[in-house]
Amino acid sequence: MTQPIQPLTRQACWRQELACAYTSPEQLAAALALPADALMSARSAAQQFSLRVPRGYAARMRRGDLNDPLLKQVWPVADEMERQQGFFGDPVGDLAAMPVPGLLHKYHGRVLLVVGGACAVHCRYCFRRHFPYGQANALARQRDRVLDYIGQDESISEVILSGGDPLSVSDSHLSALVGQLAQIPHVKRLRIHTRLPVMLPERVDNALLAWISAFPRQVIVVFHTNHANEIDQSVARGFARLSTIGVTLLNQSVLLKGVNDDADALCELSEALYASGVLPYYLHMLDKVQGAAHFQVSADYALQLMDIVRQRLPGYLVPNLVYEQAGALSKLPLTGGVRK
Ligand SMILES: *Cc1c(COP(=O)(O)O)cnc(C)c1O
Ligand code: SF4
Question: Does ligand 2 lie within 6 Å of residue 292's CB atom?
Fold first, then answer.
């Protein structure tokens, strides 16, 4: 289905939007009229991993409600500062799977490039919150080595741009990199994992569409959306613009306690995604990163939720429930016995 590309009212201003994101608990608390007693612990937790929330994203939150599912993803809390057994700095073995700094080669046929450390938002559960972005960036000094590595291994058919958020990088850098990837004949697909179109829909501007369209083979964009309330009209418009240029649109979510750990929320998310032309791909169990233990949902409960979701939705709207294990050759499906 093709539609004309809809004009954006505020063209090319995503950098300004990014620059004026909330970066302190005080600002966000004032904007949302949050109770003052939440500020103290937010301040201390934000010292370890700073707060960052785009204004447009905050505008989708309920005022005065610390339990808002969007706010919960970004609001620093005291629980983050507790050391929990079994939670680590590098929970998924990223540092052991980097043949070239910034290039992760864990799975057959696919490499993942860390092309930028910046994000439009700081998600409190982020599994890369301790990642050494400074040293490991596929775009910086490493670019030639990364391209050599991909060029020399014909089994690599898909290159994934990740980060941080790869779309926090400028279009000129991305366009140059993608142009070079296009020269490698065995790279059949380009995949972009990003949360920016949800956080900052202005990012889906003409410059972005131009370099994506210029890639001569298939392109997949995997968004990261955790709750239906994250998708407002402007986000849906961004999705539609990408769809118009023939990009396959998928979504991955993280199962998060207090955010989306109920069947209604998961079903609504799948429905909202599909209404905007996006298919749910993965629902990830939380990676056990230090500071995120309070978001953990038990495997048993996750399986129960998926049973309900499967009963309520068509199969194509049911994401694959997976977890990541250091050293495994794929994401691993979380499965249980047959339940009635
Ligand atoms: C998740 C991931 C991929 C992609 O896995 P798919 O199952 O193809 O989505 C590739 N490389 C790394 C390092 C990953 O973490
Ligand atoms: S956008 Fe992704 S990489 Fe960035 S903080 Fe959130 S989860 Fe982490």
Answer: no
